[in-house]
Structures
1.
Amino acid sequence: MQKEGQFHIPSGCAIAGLFCKDGRRVSGESMIDSITVMHDRSNGLGGGFAGYGIYPEHKDAYAFHVFYDNTAAKESVEDFLTQHFDIESLSRIPTRKTSGITDAPLIWRYFVHPLPRMLQDMEVDEREYVVRCVMKINAQYDGAYVFSSGKNMGVFKAVGYPEDVGRFYKLEDYAGYCWTAHGRYPTNTPGWWGGAHPFALLDYSVVHNGEISSYDANRRCIEMYGYSCNLMTDTEAITYIVDYLNRRQGLSLEEVANVIAAPFWSTIEAMPEPKRSQMTYLRNTFASMLITGPFSILLGFSGGMMALNDRLKLRSMVAAEKGETVYVASEESAIRRIQPELDRIWAPRGGEPLIFRLNEGVKF
Amino acid sequence: MKITAGDMHFQTLNETIRNTPDTEIEIDSCLGQRYIGAGLSGKHIVIKGTPGNALGAYQDGCNIEVHGDAQDATGDTMNDGMITVYGSSGDATGYAMRGGKIFVKGNIGYRAGIHMKAYKEKVPKLIIGGCAGSFLGEYQAGGVIVVLGLLQDGSYPLVGNFCGTGMHGGKMYLRTDTLPANLPIQVKAEDASEKDMDEVRPLLQEFCSKFDFDLQTVLNAHFFVLTPDTANPYKALYTRN
């Protein structure tokens, strides 16, 4: 089969997300219901979900979700994992036979803790250690791909329509305070399991509708900081840029949004000080992380969710609130499907980040 | 004919509407079905719920009412007829309109009315009760766009950035005391003259009676009129001839 980068298909996608600010956990079923309405925005070549707060019984362990092409790949990765982590538990991720989902790889889940001795030797913090291990497996272990590596969260993705993917992974059995979903209509590349969204690193996960014109500039830039873009899919680069800017550089999510969806210079010039200087600084300092081209993205992270459009708003996105629950989707109908009555519905402006967090005091 | 759309596929819904001899059509529980009324004429379609993208695209004389919000590309390239949205409407509403009217009570998304055009008696009209996103009337070549700002809650300006970029025909009415910043030099903004207001009054009247606004309140405010600066505003923009 041809993989990413070997093939070109011109063309949309669908994204949806829900977030319970009060920390209430809801089953993955409602996310499936929502994304189903936008069936025709995908073409069956990729679907996926990210759920947060779904592993309360293992909440202090990093949950690795791994695709293997064969048992040999599994054995060698498990050797690596044993050398670097204390494995709390491991199991196959439960799936059900679903028409529309074929050619499934081996799909395994590991709850792991970095080995303190190894951490000490590498002289990095725990999260950096996990990132380096994930990068190493994904770059150097043929036929293996760690597609989820955060705490108390998990990504579930496959080739197929998102509703089939959700049923395949039995998402009704998981409950989370936040869910994001994606229906894929691959642009430029054929769909494969690793290329489905969300793309995740640590607890960051990104679902993305659009196409990044600046992919190669972004990739060249982020690869200088030790990230390897193995999947040849633009969304992967967004995930690594967010990790780099937010976790490693310590930028706030608002600042991250102002880097990747920076306003035009003409818009910046019209801003009052000190905003103008701040925006100028961000645009200049992280010039190669500006993402151009159409996109609407949902970024999931521990305790929150961010929605962002490109600065020209070349992809549709609406947000809504009902009580303590927030909804975001490519189309209003996807929100109305699961919540017909809304307190407020609005379309955020291009480049305007919407950041939702758990209410103060809510534990996850 | 009354149709409960629910989870019905858009193709089934649209074939039903197209094939019925009925001209009065009511769609209940509409949920994202695309292309409703696309390319049709002579039907009165009342929609409750949220119709999908490209509502009334290429339509040629239907009267479409939406009791709810409309999504993207509403009235794309429509040639004639009317679309009334009692809520808000998404991006690219009235894109490349050639004729007819679109009335939106609430707000409108990005790129509304871009590349609207006109020819002889065909003068499309897009009236927005709330505010509009960026690129309003980009490349506008004809027709009338009116933004009233009646329902502004202050969270967004009357129109976003890059209003009227590339405009070379038609007219835009903005009900505001302050012009959008950075209008392109090829666009001329003037206080609305009496003649301008006479031209737009019947349209405002129709808008007000539809949505129950008070016409006097609407008129009792300052309007700017945006038009292209000359007959050929982009002459020598790219080349010397």
2.
Amino acid sequence: MEDYFSYTKKLFDPSTIKDKPEVFKGIKVLDFSHVIFGPVAARILAQYGAEVFKIEMPFVGDLWRFGVYWGKFWKHSSVCFHFVHYNKYFLSINLKSPKAKELIYKLAEQADVVVENFAAGTAEAWGVGYSQLSKVNPKIIYLSCATYGQYGPLRFFPGWDLLAQAASGAISLTGYPGTDKYYKLPDYLGDYFPGNVGALSLVMALYHRKKTGKGQYIDLAQSEALMRILPNFTYFSITNQELERVGNTDPTMAPSGIFKSRDGKFVALAAATDEQLKALFSAMGQKKLISEYKDSFDRLHPKNSRELHRIAEEWVSKRDSAEIVNLAKEYGFPVAEVMDDFQIANDEWRRQRGSVIAFKDDIYRQFVLPGPSAMLSKTPGRVKWLARPLGYHNRYILKTFFGLSEEQIKRLEKERVIGYWDDRPGIKPPVYYDIEKDPIFNYQDDARGRQNE
Amino acid sequence: MNKAKDKPQEQVLVRYGISRREREQFLASMMSPEGKPEVLSDVVVLDASYANFSGIIAASLFAEFGAEVIKVEPPEGDPARKITPYGAKVNGVGIPFLMEARNKRYLTLDVRTDAGRKDFKKLAAKADVLIETYPAGQMDAWEIGYRQLSEANPGLIYAAITPYGQYTDRAKEFNNIPDSDITSQAASGLAANIGDPDISPEPYNWPFRAGAWIGWYISGLEAALGGAIALVYKEDTGEGQMIDVASADAYASLVGYPVFIGYTWEKARPRLGRHDFTLYPYGFWKSKDGIVAIAAPRDHDFRALLKILKLWKIEDDWRFTFDRITDMLDQIEKLYGLIEAETVKYTSDELIGKALQYSIKAARSKWRGGGVPIIMKVQKPSDIMKNPHWNIRKAFQEFEDKKLGKFIIPTNFIKMSESPPRVKWISCDIGQDNKYIRKKYLSD
């Protein structure tokens, strides 16, 4: 029989992804959302083939177009914005004008999914809420994302990922016990994780619609998505004690922690089961300890786990990290070196796997962005293009989708129903790129027609 | 505070023809799961995960959406039953295992034996989704891998979760290293971005583990998401496929920051402790009676924050986003201190009230510039469970089991009007459904 790893290599080969089918081909998504929480859910559908129309205000644009780390724009754009918006169509339509609403309703008639993340009730007030769009298209699947959800006394409270982390109790868990050190979950995890939960709910709703033909309304509160992953509530209801900050360890495994090795690297090490603990003690040459700590529950008791933590810390501090990794490979216990941003971006394994993708874009040229951690063998996700300047696909969509003529589009531009960027990084194209010659931006048209440049 | 907050909003809604209470009741009844169909009512999921919660979590998500989930474990039980904070247990079951025992069937079947594998093959022939967490190639060597099972059942969706995946040289080389949450956090870039800055004393400046199973929950969610996408494809074509989840990718693939900052900045970010590297102020401060999270990153939000804290005198120094970027740590520590000197004068509720009142007025005034400073109490689980908001939204549900007693779990985290996920029962005795499963799937 063929070797397993050469079989799987063929099954998942990243170079064949572009020839494989897309699950959501033909699914149309109307994306009113901004920043991260909503857009990520829509982008995941785009990753697997859906056509996502991202609607932004002319000359304003999504707030996250300016969400740059330490003020550093990359080719006049935000790298974070590229990640939450690849494969989307960028429409810049002024929702306040009645003519724009006609366009939106026409889109909604044919759309399958709508995503929004305004404060609760705002979409309704603007005429694009579920109650209105479901009249235009009863089969629509409508996802409303908010920090506290669409009903309940807190629903009018505005929110960001940080506030969801505070309200769900996630912040109260990370830090050193007995000090004033708390840490939030970094990188807006409180947006990304619930955003992926939103994508799951959309896929489930699409599946349901395939079977029954029914659309539906989804109310997703990011705080609730975060609460779902915390054991503290159940822990409290059973033990009547708070699960406080636990320090640099996992209280469900002993030993477990992030330790410093002899060569100054950081190594995460854990033993979750009897088997793994046996492997660890064997690697340490301390087999006599196996019988001492054989009870799985008992060794998690703080006095025992502290002792195990100390033993592991001391052992790691006397060895180089490479040696520890080799012992883990040989004996079979969980170990991983702490990887930082630079190592991850340049990791050979991730490049081979396709979880870090070197991508060549028509406008932004070479870029490296993350692939999914779940690879699908037959219908993989893929990157087709990065985010685009504000209103980039206006002309393309208005002509191909709505069948508008050049004159009609010019009138819309004049009436400020649609619009483009102004001279700010984040919403304009990179300085080296000649947008006037771009075949999509100037779809079947010469550049002279445009007003707002 | 509440009265002042509610009044203007009432008017807004009346203007659009719905009263506050009507909208509330309408939505609450719309989202109630009672009597509604379940999305995955005709889907069978086999959970063969072993000592790995990401598999259990993925299976839970399928079960909440209505699938028949069969947890396959050896006669002595999955070691995951004993993975629990500080060894806390109920009737021999750890708390995380109990919390994830949602709508599942428990079957004892030992895939390490020939007889067990024979039954497993029969089950897999009738399953739609299979989840496993053994070392890459282990199931294949047992002849119950994707390669063998998909021959008898081409519609099978086979999700495997391991640290380094099913293909590439590293997957093969690191095959023997088991998965755990803390190693997933470390390998995927989460730990490196939590902790105090370099200048702090050791060990506070070390990489730090997030205090929840972030690694395992991401892998579980991504496996379920991949599985759901594969189910849609199966509905169209009848074809199944293999899903390969690498837990060493979990965090980096979800949030992306480690990858694109590593690439564009060409170095690793330093750890920033309590600060954020994109937005400021965006963190937490002491109040008179606890800790509050404050987000006021846009310039107009920041101005509003200064107004409500009576700090307007410092506005000139910190006016623009670029004055407040956290690349100069001393600078930002200084601003942190200035803000904290004011926040400790008020209780958390006072601060929240001030921010809300300002926001409501600002929304109506052309002079106030629409700034929205957002303040929220950093809450502990016991406070959160008392909050009427989550009560109305049924975010927590109490269960009672003969053997497990009474307990509360967080649930109903996705509200859907037609086919909401739900938790129907929680119980997880080893082999409790042997008879039922054997009769239903293994009798022929």
